[in-house]
Amino acid sequence: MKCFFFATCIAALAMSGPAIAAESTTKSAPATKSTSKKSTTKTTKAPAAPAGEKWQCELGTVMYLSGNLQVDQVIGLRFQGKNYRLPRVATTTGADRYADQRSGMVLVVIPSKAMLLNSKGGHRLADECQTEAMLAGAAAPTQAGGLRGGPSTGLLGPSTSGGASQPQSQPQ
């Protein structure tokens, strides 16, 4: 009698096993279809344009800086899809330097270009970075340059050579 009871239980479990598996596959099939539709709608959205000014670097590298380099003590950097906040670091060389100790990102801006370094890895990430205005001949908007009166006037201010200044004629 005990053997008949166990045989009946095993048979019942064996018969209900495929039915349970069939129910789970039919229920999960519509769920995968709805998730695939959602994923296709997500991929059709265009990514938002990065905030900040575009700096074009050598080898096609691009970074975006947000904030005013001449005034702000913290600027925003977007590089390779990640955002960083870089606080200003005091220097004695006259270059503007921004560094984030946590990420290791270091940005050095001089009047002719900017360089992005990784202090943790010990290598340059981007070099010869310039804005559109810099490519046209303007100097970088650095705080050190603004304090000196701009890069064209030098450290001592306007030129004090003995020659008389020529008045500039304006087109009429």
Structural class: alpha+beta
What share of residues are in beta strands? 25-35%
Shape: elongated
Number of strands: 8
Task: Give the termini separation.
Answer: 118 Å
Could you list the spans in which at least 5 consecutive residues all have pLDDT below 50? 147-165
SSE order, as H and E? HEEEEEEEEHH
User: What's the tally of helices?
Assistant: 3
Radius of gyration: 32 Å
Mean pLDDT: 73
The spatial strand order of the largest sheet comes to 1-2-3-4-5-6-7-8
User: Portion of residues in helices?
Assistant: 25-40%
The CATH architecture assignment of the domain at 53-147 turns out to be Beta Barrel
CATH class of the domain at 53-147: Mainly Beta
- The CATH topology of the domain at 53-147 comes to Lipocalin
Biggest sheet record: 8 strands, antiparallel
Verbal overview:
Helix content is 30%, strand content 27%. It is elongated and about 90 Å long. Strands 1-2-3-4-5-6-7-8 form an eight-stranded antiparallel beta sheet, with no helix packed on it. The termini are far apart. It has helices spanning 2-44, 132-135, 143-147, and strands spanning 53-56, 62-66, 74-79, 82-89, 96-99, 105-110, 113-118, 123-129. The protein is α+β, with helices and mostly antiparallel strands. The protein has three helices and eight strands, in the order αββββββββαα. The protein has a domain at 53-147: Lipocalin (Beta Barrel), CATH 2.40.128.
